[in-house]
Amino acid sequence: MTQQLPATMSQSLFDSRADAIADAARQLAALGWTPATSSNFSMRVDDEHAAITISGRDKGHLGRDDIMLIDLHGHAVGTTARPSAETALHTQVYRRWPEMTAVLHTHSRTQSVASRLYAARGTIQLQGWELQKAISGYTSHDSVLEIPVFPNTQHMPDLVAQVDAWLDAGKPLHAYLIDGHGIYTWGRDIAEARRHLEALEFLLECEMDLRRLSS
Amino acid sequence: MTQQLPATMSQSLFDSRADAIADAARQLAALGWTPATSSNFSMRVDDEHAAITISGRDKGHLGRDDIMLIDLHGHAVGTTARPSAETALHTQVYRRWPEMTAVLHTHSRTQSVASRLYAARGTIQLQGWELQKAISGYTSHDSVLEIPVFPNTQHMPDLVAQVDAWLDAGKPLHAYLIDGHGIYTWGRDIAEARRHLEALEFLLECEMDLRRLSS
Amino acid sequence: MTQQLPATMSQSLFDSRADAIADAARQLAALGWTPATSSNFSMRVDDEHAAITISGRDKGHLGRDDIMLIDLHGHAVGTTARPSAETALHTQVYRRWPEMTAVLHTHSRTQSVASRLYAARGTIQLQGWELQKAISGYTSHDSVLEIPVFPNTQHMPDLVAQVDAWLDAGKPLHAYLIDGHGIYTWGRDIAEARRHLEALEFLLECEMDLRRLSS
Amino acid sequence: MTQQLPATMSQSLFDSRADAIADAARQLAALGWTPATSSNFSMRVDDEHAAITISGRDKGHLGRDDIMLIDLHGHAVGTTARPSAETALHTQVYRRWPEMTAVLHTHSRTQSVASRLYAARGTIQLQGWELQKAISGYTSHDSVLEIPVFPNTQHMPDLVAQVDAWLDAGKPLHAYLIDGHGIYTWGRDIAEARRHLEALEFLLECEMDLRRLSS
C-alpha cells in the first residue's frame, strides 16, 4: 500500500513521525498494553494532517508501512488504507488543542479493569500520590487528578460527543478511560504523551491495589 | 527419532508447519504459559494429517525434531514417537472444522485458576470488554462470549465426548477450559489461533481482577 | 579461593557439576526467586561428595569460582570457603536417597508468602491440578500432593530433625517449605529438580490465587 | 552542561561514581521502580561532596552527563545543573553517617502502595521473614525490622526534620517510606544499598500479599 504525500509535505517529515509512532508502539506492546492487535497511536504532522497506525496491525512489529496519513477530520489522505474506527478520537484532540502533537490509546489489563470498576461513578479521582506530578500542570500530591470514564459504544460520534461535552463544561482533561476498553492520553510532544501514559498506568495500578488491600 | 513423511507430502510443507509450531511454542513458553513441559500445539498439514508436539518436551526450546506427524485419528505416522495423550482433542477440531488449521493448548496460571473458579458453573460468560472483538465473528463489546469449562479427566474419550456434546447441541465454540488444567483454542491460521489465545488470556485476567476488586 | 579436588575426582566431573549449578542459579535468579543473595543450590558429585554454592554470592552471576566441594556431612573439602549454614539440608537429601543428585533451595515471594499462610496448619495439600503430574510418581490430578511447612529456626540441626521425623514417619516427601523462608526440592537429575521447582511454584501461585478469589 | 570538578578531585574518581550510579539506575528502571522520570540516586565522592542524578532525566538511559556534583548541603558544585528538590534527603544521610557512601530513592508500585496503607500507623513492622537477614545487622527472622512512614510534603525541610527527629530519638533506621511517594535506603557501598533496596521491596510485597490473603 503506497502512501502519497501532499506536495507541501516533505517525505522526511512524514517518516520522522512514522518512526516515532512505530518506536512508541513497539515499546508499549512489549509492556503488554496492546493485546491482540488492539490500540492505536498518532502524531500531528502539520496544521491539517496527522499520521496514524493502520487498523488491525500487530503493534509490536510496526514499520513505516503500517502508518498512514489522515486529515484532521479522519479521512485517509493519499492512500487506500483504512484508518481505525477510533481515528475520530485522535483528530478531536488535534482540532481542540493546537499545541498537542501526539495521542496514545492503549488497552492494558489495568486500564481495562479500572474502567469497569469506576464506570458507574463516571470518574476516577486520584489524590495523595507523588507521581501525579508527572502530569503536566500538577505540582503537588495534594491536588486532585480527575480522569473521566465514558461509556463504551461502537458508534464513534457518541464517544466524540461525550468528550466534547466534558470539555465544553470547562473541566480539565489530560486523559480519559472508555468502559471495558482502554485509555486515551496526549501531549505536546511524544515524550510528554508517553510520560502521561506511564504515570497514569502506574497511578491506576496503585489505586486498585490500595482498594484491594484497604477492604 | 526420524520422521518419515507419506509419499504425497513434501518435506518443505511439513517443515514449514513444524517451524511455525516451534516458533509459537517458544513465544508462549516465554510468557510462562507452558510450565514444566506441559501444553501442546498442532497444525493441520493436509486433509488427513497434522503436525503436533511430541509429549514431554520443554516448550521453550522446540526444534523440528520435537514435532511429529499424526493422522486425524491421532495415530503416529512414519515415526515411533509417542504423541501426547491429549492429541485426541486436537484431531477433533480438525475433523469437525475443515477450515481450522491450528490448535493451541496452554496451561497458564490465569487459565488454570479461572477453570477452577468457574468449574461448578460450567461456563464463563464474558461481556462488556472491547477485546471480545479479537475473537472472529464478534463485532461488539455488548455480545456475550461464552467459554465452557469441562471437568478434567485422565480418560481422553470422556473429554472428547464432552466437546462433541456441546457442539452437537448447536452452541458456538471458540475455545474451552478444562478444570484445573488449561485452555484449548484454534483458528483458520496460526495467527488467528494466537490472537484468540492472547485475547482469551487477557479477558480471563480482566474478569478475575474485576471479581477480586468488586467483592 | 582455590578448590583442591580429591585425587579420585576428575576436574572435568567437578566442573560439569559447577557449570550446571551456575546455569540453574542464573535462570532462577532471572525469575526473581533468589532475592538479595539468598538461596542455595547443590549437585551430588560422587558417593561421598557434593558441589554447593558458596554462601552470600549473587545467584544471578555465578561462575565456577562460586561453587565449592563438601562431603556429605557438610564439611568443606579442599577449600577454605565457607559453605552455607543450610548445607545440612542438602546433605540430608543426598544421604537419605542415593538416587537423588540435585537439590534446589529458592526464596520466591510466592514460596515465602505460602509458607507463612500455611505454617499454622503445617502442610499444604494440593489437589485437582493437572500440573501435579509434573511431580515424579504422580499420574492424576485427583491425587493429593502434600507439602509440609516446617517452622523456621536459625539452628540447622532442628530443621534437619524435623525433616527426619517426617520421613521416619513414612510420609512421602518431594519438597518442603520453611516458614517465612522458602522451598527445598530435589531430583534424580537437575532437570527433574528444576521441573519440580517450577511446578511447585506454579501450584503454590494457583492455590493462593484460588484462595484469594474464592473468599 | 559541563561539570567542573574541584582541584582536589580526580576526574576518574567522579567518573567511577557517575558510572556506578548510572548502572544502578538503569537496572532499577528496568524493574519498573522509577516510573515517568521519578526517583533519584547518589554516591558520596569524598568527605565534602556527593554525585547525584540531575532532576527529570529518564532513569533508564542515564550517562555520565546526567550526574552532577553537590556539596553535602545540597548546593551544585561546578555546574549550572539543578539538583533534585529531594537532594536534601541524600545529603542528610552523608552528614549523619560518615560510613555511608550510597543513597537510593525509588518509586515502585509496591513502595507507593505500602506507604499509603501504613501511613496512618506511621511504621511498618516486619517480623518472621528470613530475608530480614539481608539488612545489615539483622541475624534472625525473629527480630523486628521497623520502617517508618513519614507524611509527604513538597517542603523538603519538613521531611528532613522528620528524619532527624526519628534519629535523634535514638531509633534504628535503615530505610524510610514517604506516604504516597517511595522509599529511601542506603549502604556503606552501593552493593549494600542495592541489597537493602531489593530486600525491602521483597519484604513489602510479601507483607502486603500476606495481608491480602489473611483477611
UniProtKB/TrEMBL annotation, chains A, B, C, D:
* Cofactor entry: Zn(2+)
Reactions catalysed, semicolon-separated, are: 5-(methylsulfanyl)-D-ribulose 1-phosphate = 5-methylsulfanyl-2,3-dioxopentyl phosphate + H2O
Keywords in UniProt for this one? Answer: Amino-acid biosynthesis, Lyase, Metal-binding, Methionine biosynthesis, Zinc
**Biological processes annotated in GO:** L-methionine salvage from methylthioadenosine; monosaccharide metabolic process
- The Enzyme Commission number assigned here is 4.2.1.109
Q: Identify the InterPro entries for this entry.
A: Aldolase_II/adducin_N, Aldolase_II/adducin_N_sf, MethylthioRu-1-P_deHdtase_MtnB
Q: Which residues bind Zn(2+)?
A: 105, 107
Family matches, as SUPFAM superfamilies: AraD/HMP-PK domain-like
Q: Which pathway does it take part in?
A: Amino-acid biosynthesis; L-methionine biosynthesis via salvage pathway; L-methionine from S-methyl-5-thio-alpha-D-ribose 1-phosphate: step 2/6
A Pfam family of the record is Aldolase_II
Show which residues constitute the signal peptide: none
Q: Which GO terms describe its cellular component?
A: cytoplasm
How does the cofactor attach, per the note? Binds 1 zinc ion per subunit.
Q: Which residues form the Class II aldolase/adducin N-terminal domain?
A: 19-208
Any single GO molecular-function term of the entry would be:
zinc ion binding
Which residue windows are coiled coil?
none
The entry sums up its family as follows: Belongs to the aldolase class II family. MtnB subfamily.
Q: What does this protein do?
A: Catalyzes the dehydration of methylthioribulose-1-phosphate (MTRu-1-P) into 2,3-diketo-5-methylthiopentyl-1-phosphate (DK-MTP-1-P).
Q: Which HAMAP family match?
A: Salvage_MtnB (MF_01677)
For this protein, the record's PANTHER family field holds: METHYLTHIORIBULOSE-1-PHOSPHATE DEHYDRATASE
Quote the protein name from its UniProt record.
Answer: Methylthioribulose-1-phosphate dehydratase
Please state the gene responsible for encoding this protein. Answer: mtnB
